[in-house]
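Same chain as my last thread, 97 residues:
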Amino acid sequence: MASLPWKAKQRLRQLLKSTALRAISFIIARPRLDDFLRRQVYRFPGIAGRMRAAVAHSRRSNWQTLPPVLSDEAELSDDARLILQDLTRAADRVRTP
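reply #2:
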């Protein structure tokens, strides 16, 4: 990759990333395959560490992109509405270190 122009490197990285994400989606959609590959990957410590880091990063990313909470609170039970209000207040509160 050292001899490739910058644009070609960027396109190659994007292609590899999109291919990897599609492969991961394919595997995750099939629980038996997912379980089998998770057991097998630990035979290769270098890959296992990278996989753990990727999973942690993807979970963190998924958490940051959660859809907004339902705007129609009328469908919630009283207890669920109270919990939602408590969580909203806690999220809006400014945290000080």
